[in-house]
Amino acid sequence: MSRGSYSQALCWWGALGVLAVLAACAGSGHAVRSELFFGLGRPGGGEVSPGQWRDFVDREIVDRFPDGFTVIPADGAWREPGGARTMREPARILVILHPGDAASSAKLDEIRSAYRRQFGQGSVLRVDGPVQADF
Questions:
Q1: Whether the model pTM is above 0.85
Q2: Would you say 38 and 91 are in contact if contact means Cβ atoms under 8 Å apart?
Q3: How many CB atoms lie within 10 A of CB 25?
Q4: Which residue range(s) make up the domain with 20?
Q5: Are the C-beta atoms of residues 105 and 98 closer than 8 Å to each other?
Q6: Which domain CATH number covers 53?
Q7: Total domain count for the chain?
Q8: Low-confidence spans in the chain with pLDDT less than 70
Q9: Pick from 65, 55, 124, 60: nearest CA to 92
Q10: Which residues, 6+ apart, have CB-to-CB distance to 113 below 8 Å?
Q11: What element of type H or E holds 55?
């Protein structure tokens, strides 16, 4: 599968998954939107390859959030700790709508830990916020 068709498939699959989560929350319309930001740069040089990313998604994310999610390709920038130099790297943003329970939070933290461990990353940013989700 080409990179473009893989990205399209992920977006469509993710959109369908988001609809499933919204359907589960349809009674209230309330959900939590969590975003995880994964830098693809590797310590010492190189990047997480598309195949490595795909394998990570399949192994660490799909089973934890089977109702769906969205992955957005991004370009990230950050400042080195204590430095004046701005670093740039490709990134992926994982977006998940969930009920905001402790089990979902634990699954998100497990994903973050697995990525840091597997790819030697210092951090994976997590952002959570309440959303009104109706369709």
A1: no
A2: yes
A3: 20
A4: 3-132
A5: no
A6: 3.30.70.120
A7: 1
A8: 1-28, 135
A9: 124
A10: none
A11: helix 50-56
